[in-house]
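User: Last request for today: this protein with adenosine monophosphate, please.
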Amino acid sequence: MEERKVENRFQFYNTLSRKVETVIPHEDGKIAMYTCGPTVYHYAHIGNLRSYIMEDVLEKSLRYVGYEVKRVMNVTDVGHLSSDADTGEDKMLKGAKREHKTVMEIARFYTDAFFSDCEKLNIKRPDVVEPATHCIPEFIHMIEVLLEKGYAYVAGGNVYFDTSKLDEYYVFSSQSEKELLVGVREDVEEDVNKRNKNDFVLWFTKSKFEDQALKWESPWGVGYPGWHIECSCIGIKHLGEYMDIHCGGVDNIFPHHTNEIAQSESYLGHPWCPYWFHVNHLNDKAGKMSKSKGDFLTVSLLEEKGYDPIAYRLFCLQSHYRKPLEFSFEALDNMSAAYRKLVKRIAELKEEGAVDEAVCAAYRERFAGALSDDLNTSMAVTIVYDLLKEETNGATKLSLLRDFDRVLSLNLTTAQTAEETDVDEELAAYVEAKIAERAAAKKEKDFARADAIRDELAARGVVLKDTREGVVWSRA
Ligand code: AMP
Ligand code: ZN
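Assistant: Here's the final one, the structure of the complex with adenosine monophosphate:
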């Protein structure tokens, strides 16, 4: 295929400007992208993963249209309290108590679980993944600078960011303060040390939670960082003083991203990130899916119920990232059936004919156009269906499908179809029966028969291996 032309009219809805805008990166052809990572005190639910799927599509789309992308993600393993307004218990500590493990054990376990879920959903691992606990000296440095510049104060032992020092605090929204605070402060008591009600903690020392497991020395006493400081600091550490795109779910807009901007720009002394990409929530019938609600849906649960996680990825791609999406098993059943049908149709294509470059160029342009149009993923999927109906040869279709799958990541040309799985099951039953027959022959000391069975299987492309745990087989 010929080199793809660089498409630089990539647009999406920028929460900061409240408009769909063309992305113009601070360095030509390169995008510095930051994603708020998971708080690793529990499994990610499929709502969290909706955000990560759509951010993955954003990153891959930017690469598709020709940008070089550096993507950084934090892992929150300290400092995120039950309420985003800095009250309640540290979520990590809550997880550790729940499972009678140490905080670091919990962090390790759920970080691995998160990346394993991402792999199942074909979500690419960001170029840099940084746990908050690896950056304590950098957080301390940033807080020192904020104190020196007069943007922070110490009260009751904690260090707070002083929001009254800013010209503008509510950068994201024209909503009233009251509206913004709904859901953030419910059922939690006010922190009397705060000078202004939106001030937030940069460093906790005199916390009322004496059993906080992770503590570090700091100029203000032994303690631990607040949640918001980690994303500012990790972003600046790996992407420098300017980043292009910052992403997260819509619940991160306030207070988390608002506070990130406040402290980053006060620290840097200039604007920080011009484009903010937010994914709307996955809801169930009872409302927003959340980890603190007892039962929540995980990728493993979907698998246990027999769903291919990629069908869930397709479910997400079929709706626009800015709209709330309601999950139901009925909807997922329909999507799974559609997905099976789609990959079956693709599996029937033959690599025949010469790739038609003119058809490829036209389709690639349409596909890039859909992605550049505020990440219109359902249109991108429609283009896949249009291609299947197109009057062109199999080689052209397959070549384009592989190309599109660099963004969609739906295993379009590699998924096992239902028929293939059935064949595998049939073969497995046959091989298992033959292995049992061979074991019986060996027991009878009929080695000629045992060898004959091995040869018979070899003729069908199955290789047997005798191990301490028994006989294992594989396809040659
Ligand atoms: P957390 O692990 O709670 O820090 O959240 C990880 C990411 O998931 C953040 O970007 C959240 O904004 C996002 N998120 C949380 N709940 C949902 C939901 N129900 N639907 C979509 N994204 C969500
Ligand atoms: Zn963050």
